[in-house]
Amino acid sequence: MQITIRADEGMWLTDGENYGKTISLAEGVAVDDYYEITNEEYEAITENIAEEI
Question: Which strand ranges, in their side-by-side order, compose the sheet holding 11-14?
């Protein structure tokens, strides 16, 4: 059974490595592995990643 989770408006889902507005969970991955972060948090994270490249 495929489980898909969606972030609330203005939020992103993450497990600390993967980010998305909609996530289709792989087999063996729990919904509880993902949590929501704000758009501002996501932008800060992606800016830091871009600076490292």
Answer: 19-20, 11-14, 35-38
